[in-house]
Specification:
Layout (H helix, E strand, L loop, with lengths): L1 H8 L3 H9 L4 H14 L13 H10 L22 H4 L9 E4 L3 H13 L13 H4 L1 H4 L12 H25 L8 E4 L15 E5 L1 H5 L1 H5 L3 H12 L4 E7 L7 H8 L3 E2 L18 E2 L2 E2 L14 H24 L7 H10 L10 H6 L12 H16 L7 H15 L4 E5 L3 E8 L4 E4 L3 E2 L5 H27 L38 H13 L2 E5 L11 E7 L12 E13 L2 E7 L4 E11 L2 H17 L8 E6 L6 E6 L5 H6 L3 H7 L1 H11 L13 E3 L5 E3 L11 H7 L6 H28 L1
Parallel strand pairs: 1-10, 4-8, 12-14
Antiparallel strand pairs: 1-5, 2-3, 3-4, 6-7, 8-9, 9-10, 9-11, 12-13, 13-17, 14-15, 15-16, 16-18, 17-18, 19-20
């Protein structure tokens, strides 16, 4: 038996392949192979012992792990970063609203790994060395030792070596059925985007390897279908598959992690006040409007089994509770702990907990210090001071950590988030449409299930990104789709982070520079009278913000004999300046950005002004400061109208925000030149303000807005209207003088702008 068992351990991958492909039972096949080994004792290499890949993996997964320990010089700070500008100004549609605890989430993830183990891993070659051996030398370094943890940085580095590298290699091999243990995924401490690194930056990332993005050889090692999957993920900027946020061993104590789980239920997101004193950031307002941060987000996965099960289960649970309340009229029953706390605190005023001691005694300790004896008070105060000195588990800290983790997920549009404190970990799943965070119980890294759950988690992150990427690909093939609100979220200022150089968002998917296609767009704008337009809900506060809108033309151009619908759709994007929004123009195959803008008028008064501006733009659209206009869009069943124009740049403050201050400085005299050119036509602007000028990167200045001018009337003119005689030349002279005064005033204002 011993000889047979030893020979079983030396079976190579081809033996498992034959067993897998045959219709016979496994035991019968193993017996035949044992007999073959006895007849041919030298059929396998004997230079070193070989263990089947599946057994190697099982041994690795079940091998015990030493817990992390703090070094003698470790920081004992448990402070966590408080919310800042990006967090406090996060768009309401992106804020966390609810936390749900999924107790069996680790087991669900481990099932993914167990499915991989249910086969013999026949795709691996006989000589494939296990990644645990490959990383063994690195594991002996000082950084990887469990007792070397000084702070978050050393914890992140140690986790990278002990877990990140080997587990990403294992997951890649299992998911893509690679012939050897090597990565398509990689664990890294740095994101793909390197800009905007001063906010919402996680400590670890699971990404598609850089080699895959840059090297065709690595890419060709996968099947065509797998290549297409990876390409779709990269294209839509989903290659940050999972994010890690680390807390040092003191900040992430068991009490703090338990406090994080205790956040379950409705979540209150911290926001900035109107004065900006809370964020203290110069970007608090944009054009006198409260700034909104975030990024354009994708969809939730639809066909990832575990996610579907979790989401549906929680939805059914919530629906059942609601049904019970509606049927019985009774409030939702509390658990035993909640009932105990309610009973014990009845009739007492409880002090707000500030330390762990307060938190533990809050349900029984009254606030009056007179009820506590001197000795008890002295002992309690001494213990509180000690725990305060050690910075243990502030009650508000879990809430701060949740804000930090969720903001990072929003910034990188990630679904899988991990909160790791060395020896304890909480796995989180972000759901976009309901703004919900599904979290696991506190998991110890020494748990037998930990490695299996991690492998399942990384595989889940890949399946999720693939599903979401293909949803966007499907939408691209639909002519004029009505996109869900969640994806077309518009933000102010520009969404963070910038799109990766190898990726493009849906709206920018086919952005082209072909002059022929652009000319086709212009032809449509000049001839068609109906366009499909998407208006942001923040502007058009009705359920139907998408539909056919009519173009009203005042130019006298010939109109088609019958209403004609353009095959180009227009979508309002971000606001450029006062009531002016950039537009994305798309048809079935192409799209353009930075080509068109729309100026909106929401009231009848603004519409009257808009009609005046339309006529003024028509008059000057061929001048150096002019902008071509196409017509006024009329929104059905609404007082809203929009003047459609060509794109002409940004206001100066936006260029400065884009770090193009030098462009503004070099060309600021063009503000004055634009007003001079307008005055050369004996016309006034009416309201010279900086937000009414737009400047391109090349320095060209255009006038985006005009205001109707009404000159004052004298008493003699009023009398003249009543029939009293007055000389016409006197009136002309007076009007000329007033024009001159107005022009001089506008020149001074423009000169001040050019010197600013």
């Amino acid at each position: 038996m011993a000889n047979t068992s030893l020979k079983k351990a030396s079976l190579n991958a081809s033996s498992f392949s034959a067993a897998h492909n045959s219709g016979r039972g496994t035991n019968e096949k193993d017996k035949d192979e044992d007999e073959d080994d006895e007849r041919h004792p030298h059929s396998q290499p004997t230079s070193f012992p070989q263990v089947p890949a599946r057994d190697e993996l099982i041994n690795f997964l079940k091998s015990p792990l030493a817990p992390f320990e703090a070094s003698k010089r470790a920081t004992k700070s448990t402070k966590s970063r408080h919310p800042r500008f990006y967090d406090l100004h996060l768009h309401p549609d992106l804020q966390l609203r609810k936390i749900v605890v999924v107790e069996d989430l680790p087991e669900k993830l481990a099932e993914i790994c167990k499915k991989f183990l249910s086969t013999h891993l026949v795709h691996l070659t006989y000589s494939a060395r296990f990644p645990f051996d490959k990383h063994a030398e690195r594991d002996q370094t000082k950084a990887a030792r469990p007792t070397a943890i000084r702070n978050e940085s050393t914890l992140a580095s140690s986790y990278h070596i002990r877990f990140g590298d080997p587990l990403s290699d294992v997951t890649s091999t299992l998911v893509f059925k690679r012939p050897k243990w090597e990565g398509v995924f990689e664990y890294t401490l740095f994101p793909r985007e390197t800009k905007d690194m001063n906010f919402a930056i996680p400590d670890g990332f699971l990404c598609v390897t850089k080699e895959f993005e840059a090297t065709e050889k690595v890419k060709k090692a996968l099947s065509k279908e797998q290549q297409e999957d990876i390409d779709a993920i990269i294209k839509h900027n989903f290659h940050h598959l999972a994010l890690w946020e680390f807390k040092n061993l003191f900040a992430g104590s068991k009490e703090t992690m338990d406090g994080f789980v205790a956040l379950k239920g409705d979540f209150t997101w911290p926001t900035c006040d109107s004065t900006g004193t809370r964020c203290g950031d110069v970007r608090h307002t944009t054009n006198n409007v409260l700034s909104e941060t975030g990024r354009q987000i994708g969809f939730d996965a639809k066909d990832v089994p575990i996610l579907k099960e979790i989401f549906q289960r929680e939805e059914e649970k919530a629906a059942n509770i609601l049904t019970e309340i509606l049927q019985t009229g009774a409030p939702m029953a509390m658990d035993e702990e909640a009932e105990h706390q309610t009973a014990s605190t009845s009739g007492k005023v409880i002090a707000a907990p500030k330390t762990l001691v307060d938190k533990k005694t809050a349900t029984t300790a009254p606030t009056s210090r007179s009820t506590i004896g001197k000795k008890e008070r002295k002992a309690k105060d001494s213990k509180r001071k000690q725990e305060t000195a050690d910075n243990i588990a502030e009650p508000q800290k879990p809430h701060i950590m949740a804000v930090q983790l969720w903001s990072e997920g929003v910034k990188y549009d990630a679904t899988v988030l991990i909160l790791n404190a060395g020896n304890y970990e909480i796995i989180c799943i972000r759901r976009r449409d309901t703004q919900t965070l599904y979290i696991s119980r506190v998991l110890s890294v020494t748990d037998v299930i930990y490695k299996e759950a991690q492998i399942g988690l990384q595989a889940l992150a890949y399946y999720d990104a693939r599903d979401r990427a293909y949803q966007l690909d499907t939408l691209e093939r639909v002519a004029n789709p009505i996109f869900p609100r969640s994806y077309y979220l518009k933000l102010n200022p520009n969404p963070y982070p910038p799109v990766h150089k190898t990726a493009a968002s849906l709206s920018q998917n086919a952005v082209v520079n072909s002059d022929a296609i652009y000319q086709n767009l212009l032809k449509e704008l000049r001839s068609k009278d109906k366009f499909r337009i998407m208006l942001p809900r923040s502007i058009f506060r009705k359920n139907k913000a998408y539909g056919l809108y009519t173009m009203i033309r005042h130019s006298g151009a010939s109109m088609p004999p019958e209403p004609s619908v353009s095959n180009w759709s227009l979508e309002l994007e971000k606001r450029i300046t006062a009531r002016v929004y950039s537009v994305i123009a798309t048809n079935e195959r192409n799209s353009f950005t930075d080509k068109l803008v729309i100026k909106l008028a929401e009231s009848s008064f603004e519409y009257d002004q808009l009609k005046y501006e339309y006529k003024t733009h028509l008059r000057f659209q061929n001048e150096s400061f002019g902008i071509e206009v196409f017509g006024i869009i009329q929104v059905p069943d609404s007082t809203m109208h929009g003047l459609l124009m060509t794109w002409a740049g940004f206001p100066p403050e936006e260029l400065r925000r884009k770090r193009k201050t030098l462009v503004v400085k070099k060309n600021r005299e063009n503000y004055l030149k634009a007003i001079e050119a307008l005055h050369a036509h004996n016309s006034l602007h009416g309201n010279v303000k900086v937000e009414h000028f737009l400047m391109t990167d090349a320095g060209r200045v255009s006038l985006i807005s005009y205001k109707p001018i009404r000159l004052t009337r004298t008493a003699s003119e009023i009398d003249m209207d009543k029939g009293k005689a007055a000389e016409q030349e006197d009136e002309d002279e007076r009007l000329a003088k007033e024009y001159a005064i107005r022009m001089e005033g506008e020149m001074k204002l423009a000169k001040n702008l050019s010197l600013a």
